[in-house]
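A note from the maintainers: we've had questions about how concatenated examples are separated. There is no special marker in the raw files; a new sequence line simply starts the next protein. For clarity in this README we add a label.
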Amino acid sequence: MLTPHGGVLEDLVQRDASKRNALLKEAEQLNSIVLNSRQTCDLELILNGGFSPLTGFLNQKDYNSVVHDLRLSDGTLWPMPINLDVSEKVASPLKPNDRIVLRDPRDDEPLAIITIEDIYKPDKEVEAKEVFRGDPDHPAVRYLYDVAGAYYIGGKIEAINLPRHYDYSELRQTPAQLRSEFASRHWSRVVAFQTRNPMHRAHRELTVRAAHDKLANVLIHPVVGLTKPGDIDYHTRVKVYREIIKKYPTGMAKLALLPLAMRMAGDREAVWHAIIRKNYGATHFIVGRDHAGPGKNRNGVPFYGPYDAQTLVKKYAKELQIEMVPFRMMSYLPEEDKYAPADTIPEGTKTLNISGTELRRRLKTGAKIPEWFSYPEVVEILRTSYPPRPRQGFALYLAGLPYSGVSALGNALQATFNQFKGGRHITLLNGTGIPSQAYPEVISQLIRSGAGVIVADVKETDGAVYSPEAIAELKNTVSKAGSFILVSVETPLEQRLKQDRFGFYDEHPEAKEAKAIEETDLVADLSNDGIYESIRKIILYLEEAGFYQF
C-alpha cells in the first residue's frame, strides 16, 4: 500500500480526539463562520486526511504557489487551491491569530477551529486563468466570480467533529478506515475508479479488465459531494452503485463514497483526484478522456483537450507514485455477447453502443434500454428517479402585467388539465397562502413528485409587477428539479386599463411603460386568441414536449 501523499496521513480527527472536549468548550466562547456546501466538503477531507498533506485552508504563500506552480510552498505537489473564502463583511473584523469556529451549515454544529494565519484578497482573474484556463463559461470560474467571497482565510485546523451524514453511513469510510480494511483483506494492489455518473455494463467491464491487467482489486469511489451542475443526484447514483457492485466476482470490488466538491478542473483535477485516491489507499487510478472536464462552452469549444488529464498525470507520475490506468472505451460485440476494448476490435466488426444522449432520450420517452447496455436493476432505478415525460412534473409560469388576464388563464388551465387522464396532480400558485420567497423550494418539490405547477402570481392588488430578473432566478432554481416553461401573457394596455377597476395604473403610471418578457417558450395573446385558443396552444406545446399523450 502506498504511503499517503506527503508521507503522513493527516487524520486530524484522530489527532485531536484527546482534546475534543476542550475544543468544544472553547468553541462556545468563539466567533463562528458558517460554511457553505463546498467548504464543508473541503473541510471534511482536510479533517479525515483525504487532502493530506493539508492540515488547514491554504495561507497566501501556499495559495500563490499552488496557483502558479501546482505546488505548496514547501515544494509538495498540490494542484488545487483549497480556500476558505469569506465576504468583506466577515473578513474585516478578523486578524491573524484569531481562533474561529467553523460550523456545519445544515445543523450549525461545530466542526473545527481554525487559527488564522493570514487574511488576503486573491487576484481572481489570475486564479481563473491559471487554475481553470480562464473561460468565463467554466463552472468553476463562474463560481469564483459569482459565489466565492472576496477574501480568503488561511490557517491550521483543529478538529472537533466530522460532518454528520444520515445516509449511506456504512459507505462513508475515511482514508484510515479504508486503508485498514484493505490491509485486513490483504488487498495490496487497488485500482480506484472515479465516477460522478451512473455505471452501466461497459463501466463494469472496463474496471474488471483493469483489475485483471494489474492483478488488483477494484475500488468504486464515486463523488457524492458537489459535481457538475445538471448531474444525476447522488442518491440515485448510489442506488445504482449498490446494484453494480453485486455484479463483480465475490471479493473483487469495494464501494465507498467520496465527499468531494469537484471543480471540474480537467487536468489539474485529475492530478488532485490521483492524490486523494492515493491517500485512501489505492495504488492505481483510472483516468479517462476529458477527465473531470465540464464539456464545452457556449460556442461549442471544449474546455480541455481529450487527453490533457492523462498527459498531466503522466508528467507527475514519479511524485504521485500511484499508477495511472488509461480509461479504455468498451464496445459491445453482439455476435459474441461480450464487451471488448474498442481499440482491439478489427475494422468492420459489428458493434453496438448507446450514447449518453440516446440513453437520456430513452429514459425520457420510456423506450427500451437493452440488457446488453445496462442491468435491469440499474434501469429500474433510473426510470424511478427519472420517469418518462408523461409521468414527469413541470412548472408553467404565466408572466403577464397587471390585469393582463394571467389569473383567469391560470384558473382555466388548472380546470382543463385536471380532466386529463394520467393522475398528474395540478397545483395553481396564485399569490395566496404561500409567500413568494418559498416558491423555488415549493415548486421544485412539487415537480420532483410528478405534479404540474401553474404559477399565476402577478399580485395585481398590491401593485407588484413581475420582474424578469426574479423569473430568471426562479427558472434557474426550478430547472434543477425539472422543466420550467415560461408563457408570456400579452394583453394591450388599452384592454388592461379597462379591466383595472381598482385604479392600479393610476397609482402606478410607470407600469404603463412596462414591457412583456421577450425570451419565452410560448406567447398567449389573449386579445386576439382568447383564453380557449391560448389553452389549446399550451396543450399542444406540452403534448409535443411529451408531458401529455392523447
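[label: protein 2]
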Amino acid sequence: MTKDQVAASLKEIGTILELNGENPFKCRAYLNAARTLETSPTDLAELVRTNRLGELPGIGDALREKITTLVTTGKLPYLDELRTSIPSGLLPLLDLPGLGPKKLRALREKLKIESLEALTQACQDGRLASLDGFGEKTATNLLDSIQRRATYRKLHRLGTALPAAQSLLTHLRACPAVHQAEIAGSLRRGKEIVKDLDLIASSNQPKEVMKVFVSAPNVEKVVAHGETKSSVILTGGIPCDLRVVPPEAWPTALAHFTGSKEHNIALRQRAIDQGLHLSEWGLLKGKSKTPLKLKDEKDLHQALGLSFIPPELREDSGEVAAAEKNELPDLLTRDQIRGCLHNHTLASDGQDTLATMAQAAAELGLDWLGIADHSKSSFQANGLDAKRLEKQIEEIGVLNSKKPKCTLLSGTECDILKGGKLDFPDSLLQELDYVVASVHSGFTSDEKETTDRIIRAIENEHVTCLGHPTGRLLLEREAYPLNIPKILEAAAANGTWIELNANPWRLDLDWRWWHKARDLGVLCCINPDAHKTSHLRFLDFGVTLARKGWLRPHDVINTRTLAQLRKLL
C-alpha cells in the first residue's frame, strides 16, 4: 500500500470509531496519524522496512503495528471487522456536504437513519428539521446535495476518465490486429465532464480486437460483445464503447465519433455545399460510391477546404469558419509550460517540503515554481500567519541561493475576506514575489456581493492572480453566483491574471469563458493547485482546457522564462 492509501485507511478507522461512539481521543489518534503520514516527507515503506515508524510523532505501538500490516500486506483485519460494525449505506452519507460523523451519529441514534433513502425521507417529512442542531435550512441543503448526487451519479471527471481510457488504449495498441487506435468522443475533445468513454480502432480483424478489448484488465463487466462494437463497464463504474472500422474508413470514422454532434452537422453541410457526401464511412464525391483516399483527419479537413481543426475546438463555436479562413489559433502545447504559481507545501495543507516540490518540478521540466500556501483565515488548511509566512520567504531565499534547477518564488494564496479585504496587510504582501487571491468562504452571498468582493481584491495593486474564480467543485459544488464578464473586465483594467485551476475537481475558470478573456487581453495562469508532488501533473489537464478555450502560448503566463516573468511581477 502507498502512503496515501494507508492514510485513507486510518481516516476510515477514525471515522467508523466516531460513528460508533468510541472515545474521542482514540478516534482523533487515527485521524492525526493519517495527517502525520500525509505530511511526512519520509518514504513510508522505508520507515517500515527499517523499523523506524516510531520516529513519526503520535505513532504509538498499536498504530505502528497496523501501519506495518497495511504496508506489507495491503490489508488490515481490524479495518475489515470495523466495516462490518456499521451498515454499508452509512459511510457514503459522509460525502454529503455539511454531514460529518458527529451529525451522522446523531441521525442514526435519534432517527435510525442508515441509508440515503432513509435520510431523504427524513428531510422530506420534516423529522430532520425538527432535531436540535439541524433545522429547515440543513434539511433543504441536504436534499439539494442528494439531488445533485443523483444527477451526477452517471458522470465522470476528466481526471478520472482520461487515465482509465489511456490504460485501455495502451492495452488495445498492443494487439497485433490493431492498425490504429484512439480515444474519441467528448474525452478527446477535452470536456471536463464525460458520461462515458469512446474508443475507436481500425483493423481487418475486428473479432480479434474485440476479444482483446472485453478481456482488458480494467474491464469489470461486459455489457455487449459484438463484432464491430462492444460495450463494457470499467473498474470505477465508467461505461466504455469500442468501435472497430476498416483501415480505409479511419479518418472519417475518427472525426465522426470524436464529435461534437453540432460540429459534425456543420462539416456535413459544408460537404453537401461542395457536392460531397460525408459520413463515418468516408467522403464521397458526386455520385461516386468509392470514398476519396484519406490518410488522416488533416486530409479530410483539407478536402473540405479547411485547415486542420484540433479536437478540443470541435464544439461548433466558430471553428469551421475560422478554419476556412485559415485563422485558427496556434494553440498552447504542454512543452511550452515553464512554471506555475499556485502550489502548497506541508507548511499549510500540502504533503511535501519546499525542496521536494522544487525537485519534482525540475523533473517535470519546469524552470520556476511558485509556493502559495494558505493564509491565516483558512484555519482548516493550517493557513500561515504573518510570522510563519515571513519565515517561509527566508527559507525560499536560502534554497534559491543553492541555485537549484527549478527556482522557487515566494507567494501566498491569500483569502479574499468579506467585502473584498485581503487576509494579509499590504505591507506583508509587498514582500512577496506574487499573490494569488482566492475566495474560500461566504459561498451563499448573492451575485452582486460576491462580484463586488472579488473586484475589490482585483483592484489591490499587490494581487497578481485571481485563484479558482468561481469556486466550483465539479460534480460536488456549483459555482457561486458571479458576474464573470464584470470580473474579466476588472482583471483587464487592472492587469490581474485569471487562474485556470488545473485540479480536475475544479478546472476553473470554465473553458467557455477563456475566448472572451483572451479577447479582453486578460492573461491566463494555469496552476495545478498542487498539494503534493504528483499533483504537479495536473498541468496537463490545464493545458487541455486552455486549448479548448482557444488560448495561444502568449495568452498564458506559464510560457514565460523566469526573467520574462519577473518583469511582469
